[in-house]
Request: fold
Amino acid sequence: MSWAGRSAVEIAEAVRQGEVSAVTVVEQHLEVIAKRDQAVGAFRVLREQALDEARAVQDRRDRDDLPLAGVPVAVKDNLEVAGLPTRNGSRATSQEPASADHPAVARLKAAGAIVVGVTNVPELCLVGFGDSVFGTVRNPWNLTRTAGGSSSGGAAAVAAGMVPIALGNDGMGSLRIPAACCGVLAIKPGPGLVPPPAHDWRGLSENGPMATSVADLSLALSVLAADPGLAECWRAGTRTDPSPRLLRSVWDDSDDYAVRAPGESRHSSPEPFDLRLGVAPQPLPVGLNVDKEFQGAVRAAADALRNAGHTSLDHTRRLPAWLGPATIATWLTCAAEDADELDTARLEPRTRGLARAGRLFRRLGLDGARSRARWTRSGAEVWFDGSDVMVAPTLAMLPPKADRWGRRGLLRNLLINVRYAPVTGPWNMSGWPAITVPFATHSSGMPLGIQLVAPPGGEPHLLGLAAQLERARPWPKHAPGYSS
Reply:
């Protein structure tokens, strides 16, 4: 029996109980990666240390207390992994190995996870595509289409069953966009929950996990946040009560929390809870359209949540027209700031174009800061109009083709990004948590993602709702042809 394609919860439980060794689990995943990644292109580099670290986990005296014991994970190539250079999809970045793990990576390792490799991203993680000088990430659901971006390789690796969990980050949708493209889950937490990336785009970017199940996503988020109360919050949309089983080695010797006790069912139904849901199938300003099938998926998801006991109301107000230009200006200004530190001659045409536009906005004082403050201070709350959670599409249309978009200029990249992925950025501008949930299949055969957004602190609600959608309409855990 292969452990590749199994959930993180299943793998960790089996390793803790001695049903399988961490070494066997990692070996099997590396074998699957070797077979599948030549076509997909998810990984920039695999880690030679992975098997040695699996042996170390197997020998740990506290193995029984590790929530991610032996679980293979992938890490986005803009987060430091000790011993490997952090290339951020660019030949202009340093080839010097990182001297230490990023804190989020260190938390995964402390929980027993094994980092098997670093995943491909577009240059400087600036766009919703997956191409760079290191390769083009293709969508496992359709290899002619992009896996999205910028956490491109992570989403593709999870969708293709190469790892159960991937760590990425989201500055304007960079977790939710590729997850929706590839038919997996991803959550962008609110500020302060998970240590952010070094380049956090003026506080817009948050680190978060991608996974195939809500239980895996919740467990990964709890480790990244060092908050055990999130591990099982999917059950009732709230942080869990203390349990007799304590994971002291991970939770800083805290006696306050724990994950599920041995033998407790991981298949329990999510408990009922009642929220007021705003349903916004077409939240975009006039001039930007959402595919009709994407809108239908939003309505179907709202119906499922209504059947689960929630109150849902149609939300027909569009996002304010001024927010779109402000979001673009903010994005371009952040692109300029990232490029300022590098040799421009070594950057791709797309990156140079984005940076030039950002510098122009910066000189004109149009960096989006005032509009962002307006949206954060009151605009988002007013637009929510009393809803606890907003149900909306994650994407506006199907992912574009997989191509070397980095060799093309500003205008082409900008137009395609804005057309297919304009729904995620507003929630980076506000800092509110958001999740994408695979919920339906397009007539083209591609997956459709539903975005759930909540006010600050609403991560448990988002995970609880996602679990109810998972139960109402179970989705394929992996892309067709990639089940082990």
